[in-house]
Amino acid sequence: MTAGMRSVAQRQHLASGQDSDVFIRSDGLLVKRTRTGRDLRREAEMMIYLSGHGIPVPRVHDATADELVMQYVPGPRMSQEIGRRPWLAGSLGEELADLHHRLDAIAAPDFLDGDGDLLHLDLHPGNVVLGPEGPVVLDWASAGKGDRRLDVALSWVSLAVAHLAPVRKITRWRFLRSFMANVDPEARNAIPEAARIRLARHDRDPRERAALQKLMDRERH
To answer: Torsions phi, psi of 23, nearest 5?
Structure first.
């Protein structure tokens, strides 16, 4: 058996996202492997930049065009914790808002295209791990530049319309109320644009499409 074959044999599949698969290696490191041909070295460069500016992200160990090897951070996703411990919804909303404030203070790196501030563009509770040392932000594949208020609005929209089976409506409302109470109130004006971005990214089920369309219609009233 070759070294490459041994490496594959020592991986255990953990999850699949829209464009990649995630494995855990026998040495405890995570491997993100693209299925679409997207070059993962840019995401690795982004995470290294953020780590150097104090943003909590997994530590990068290695990266090639099709694989990103990084630290495994144990802990539940914030989205799971909202469902398991609904009484924490308010404080978790504050935590997500605090992560946005930390990004407010970081200049966007020169290697990102466009103009404006640093945006994660997919910073929702499913992309935050509540690790032993605090929340850690995952999945920087969509990072770009623009208006920080749009980034906040995308976070709000993702939880407002996403299907989260274990999360009751009252719990979701408490989380969203706490989150928006601790961010720039002007972010509300970016909700229609955030809804357009989410709708355009991937296929959505009819229920979510209808909810996003309703948010987009706010601009017309």
So the answer is: -125, 155
Secondary structure class of 94 (helix, strand, coil): helix
Q: How far is CA 47 from CA 63, 69, 205, in A?
A: 11, 12, 31
In angstroms, what CA-CA distances link 119 with 18, 65, 155, 212? 19, 23, 11, 21
Q: Which two tokens stand for residue 76?
A: 């539940």
Q: For residue 157, which of 182, 180, 138 has the smallest C-alpha distance?
A: 180
- In whole angstroms, give the CA distance from residue 145 to residue 110: 10
Strands 30-34 and 67-70: antiparallel
Residue 118, amino acid: L
Name the 3-class secondary structure at 11. strand
Looking at the chain, how many residues does it have? 221
**Side chain identity at 212, as an amino acid letter?**
L
pLDDT, tens only, 3-52: 443 445 488 999 888 789 999 999 999 999 999 999 999 999 999 999 99
Q: Both tokens of residue 195? A: 């809804």
**pTM summary value:** 0.90
